Every structure is written in C-alpha cells, then in structure tokens.
Amino acid sequence: MVKIRLKRAGRKKLPVYQIVVADARSPRDGKFLEVVGTYQPTAKPHAVTIKKDRIVYWMQTGAQPTATVNSLIRTTGLLYELRLKSMGRSEAEISAEMEKWQEHQAVRRQKRLALKSHRRSAKKEAEAKAATGGEA
C-alpha cells in the first residue's frame, strides 16, 4: 500500500517536513517514491506547499494520505476542489466556489486570531487583578 505521509527534515528543535509518497512498509525517513510538498510547523503561520497535480495523481492511483497529511491537504482546499470536480461542476463554478471558500477561510482565521487575542488580554487582566488584590 502506498501512503502520502510526512518525512522529517531540518535540524534539532526546528523540524521541516517533506510530504512524500512512500510505501507503507518503509520507515518514516526512509525510501520514498516522490516528494509532493513541504510543511514548516515552526513558521508563523504554518507554511504548507503542495504540488496539487501530483497529489491528485497519487490519490487517484490509490495512495492513502495519513491523518496529518489529510488535514494539511484540507487546509489548502484541494479536497474540496476534488469533491466539486467529482460532483461534475464546471471549471467556472469550481473557481467561484474556491474563491468563496478562501474568503470564508480568511474570515475564520481572523475570528480565531481575534478570539485568541481577547483571551490573552482577559488572562492578563485577571492576573493583574489577582496581583493587586493579593497585595491589599
């Protein structure tokens, strides 16, 4: 069975992963068939680059992405695009849907960042209140 999975590269404490197509029996950093992308988890925001055409080819050939790679592919919108193609949509409809999807993802990202900053400020206020309350 062929898998699409991560292969670790980089150095100690600074991982960079290659998204590779490999036989399921080969070790994590062992022999692989093709490099189809990269993933940098230490970059802010996480950097994912993929070769969409090659991933589509390998998935149609029968390669199964691991759970982590599947979520990385999903963040790029490739799975949604493939689903639209399988539903028989035209290229114009697919491009319009993908634009809407990207806008929706940008809104979700902004909401997540706003919520994160709100929680951070609330935590700081609570700590400051506890510090001043503890002194009195």
Short characterization:
The protein has 136 residues and is an alpha+beta fold.
What does it look like?
By secondary structure, the chain is α+β, with helices and mostly antiparallel strands. The protein has two domains: 1-76, S16 Ribosomal Protein, Chain: A; 90-136. It is built from four helices and five strands. The chain has helices at 52-61, 67-76, 78-86, 91-135, and strands at residues 2-11, 14-23, 34-40, 47-50, 64-65. Strands 4-3-2-1-5 form a five-stranded mixed β-sheet. Strand 1 and strand 2 form a beta hairpin. It is flat, with a radius of gyration of 21 Å.
Number of domains: 2
CATH class of the largest domain: Alpha Beta
Strand order of the largest sheet: 4-3-2-1-5
Helix-residue proportion = 40-55%
Instruction: Name the CATH superfamily assignment of the largest domain.
Output: Ribosomal protein S16
Would you give the CATH topology of the largest domain?
A: S16 Ribosomal Protein, Chain: A
Count of DSSP helices?
A: 4
Q: Give the termini distance in whole angstroms.
A: 67 Å
Let me know the average pLDDT: 89
Strand content: 15-25%
Taken from the alpha-carbon principal axes, the silhouette is flat
Number of strands: 5
Characterize the quaternary organization of these chains: single chain
Question: Over the alpha carbons, how many angstroms does the gyration radius reach?
Answer: 21 Å
- Unreliable spans are none
Task: Give the arrangement of secondary structure elements.
Elements: E1 2-11, E2 14-23, E3 34-40, E4 47-50, H1 52-61, E5 64-65, H2 67-76, H3 78-86, H4 91-135
Parallel strand pairs: 1-5
Antiparallel strand pairs: 1-2, 2-3, 3-4
